[in-house]
Amino acid sequence: MAKEILALHGGPRAVTASSQDRWPHVPVEAAAQRIRELLEQGTISIADGSGIIADFEEAFRAMTQSRFALTMNNGTATLHSAYFAVGAGPGTEVIVPSYTWHASITPILHCAATPVFCDIEPDTLVADPADIARKITPKTRAICVVHTWGNVADMDPIMDLAKQHGLFVIEDASHAHGALYKGRPVGGIGHIGCFSLQGAKAVSGGEAGVATTNDPELLDRMVLLGHFGRMGRGQGNRTFDHLGDMSLGAKYRPHPFAVALAQCQLDRLPDLNRMRTRNYAILNERLRDVPGVEIVEPRPGCQRGGYLEFKFKIARDIAERVSLDAVEKALQAEGAPVAKDRYSNLNFTYGLLHKAPLFTTFDRKTIGGCFYDPVSYSAPAPEVTLPVTEDVCRRMLGTFAFVDVEEQYLLQIGHAFGKVMANLDQI
Ligand SMILES: Cc1ncc(COP(=O)(O)O)c(C=O)c1O
To answer: Exposed/middle/buried for 369, CB within 10 Å: 0-12, 13-18, 19+?
Structure first.
């Protein structure tokens, strides 16, 4: 590509089209109508999971081809419930990638179990089955895979490992609503699927979450933890019927307004996924011609869904000589809405979690409560190195998971990458 003056230094901006992307905004009319109906009925809390909650669970169950769905107040609650349900507890370990949002991991501490970090595949950014296999010990109870940025973890070898070692698999599908692994919906493949329905997610209630499972006993255990009012009314085995209404009291019931909003978003998920897939393909086709940019490819035979964000890597040789901050600044000056991956901040709020003080130097005994295994816990934790995660975190850039945008806008973003990569001497 030709030498040009970067916008950073007064050259013309590569991106002149504007985005009118309205998709992430609330479907106001449909949501308002559903919420107004609830208000008129005086339905502002539903303890027994009936009505709009039952309808949403039926739709989500069908979408994930699962026997059961249990709606909650957020995705973190679904993960806590899942770890509790599979029996993560003192003396047990849960294998989980570090390349994720912290909520995939912190609920393991709520169960006083020990997170064991695994590396990711460099191309897809999801848990590497070979590294999972290396991390299995006699203490391993479960594996959590995260379908990061809508890319699907390689479920066949992971389920084989689980079967071989008698482990549970939890799918954190918070980025991947509607994604398919070899034709099978995510969330319905492992023992429990966990979906955040938080504001930015492809199906969102503002704040909500939903867990899916085929196993009635796991459903019962999730109800026992957090669903006073549904005890004894669930569709599971009713293992805990003799407890009457008493649950363990973590109140994970969702707000019906959030469920109404999530239902509106679920209705249009297929359209959302179709449009995001098209836009990602357009942008990637353009970026394929740009030396120095690596694309995060979908797993062959799988269908990405949800996405949350579109991600790209800067080639290693470039990342070694130019700072990611400088590349970000140059791209933004060109008008491209691109930001460094939050994982690259090294501030541990989102990513490189195996290096975060909470999992390394911090002595959790000092906070009291039960956030550690009282028998085997000691701090500081042994140092963990994850070569692929650490390499990728230094090189990631992302942009919005565009929905309703013109092709021209995407091509101009691709052009901005091309221009900056061809003129790195200016940054
Ligand atoms: C991968 C992943 N897991 C879990 C969560 C937690 O979900 P919530 O914010 O709904 O509690 C998030 C939220 O962003 C997430 O991205």
So the answer is: exposed
